[in-house]
Amino acid sequence: MFTIYHNTRCSKSRQTLALLEESASKSNQEVTIVEYLKTPLTRETISTLLTQLNCNAIDMMRIKEAEFSEQNLKGADEDTLITAMVNTPKLIERPIVSNGSHAIIGRPPENVLTFFN
């Protein structure tokens, strides 16, 4: 089973979803779609994804968003960055796909295919 943290307005997220659904259907696996702008992620979910991504919070963030600068997040510590993602979901890089033990960021969308190699 896969979970995609998805933004329907993002072309890369839509492309990743299409690749994921196509590949998952070939292997009879389910895909759960979480529209994280409508259903914001909890601190616990973000922490789990960071572990699965094996990265720091800054690597999971859209640092070019105006909200990043407005919240003075450059150089902030992990806890502050995670709090910012909980409070401002727009700052979360998209899409993120998890298989429950490992996650990838779908930029480029073809990254999702690593789950099927």
From TrEMBL:
Does this entry carry the keyword Oxidoreductase? yes
Q: What is its EC number?
A: 1.20.4.1
Cross-referenced CDD domains: ArsC_ArsC (cd03034)
UniProt key word Protein biosynthesis: no
Highest taxon above the source species = Bacteria
**Cross-referenced Pfam families:** ArsC
Gene3D superfamilies in alphabetical order: Glutaredoxin
Catalytic activity as recorded in UniProt: [glutaredoxin]-dithiol + arsenate + glutathione + H(+) = glutathionyl-S-S-[glutaredoxin] + arsenite + H2O
Question: So what family is this one in?
Answer: Belongs to the ArsC family.
Q: Identify this protein by name.
A: Arsenate reductase
The species this protein belongs to is Colwellia asteriadis
Q: Upper taxonomic classification of the species?
A: Bacteria, Pseudomonadati, Pseudomonadota, Gammaproteobacteria, Alteromonadales
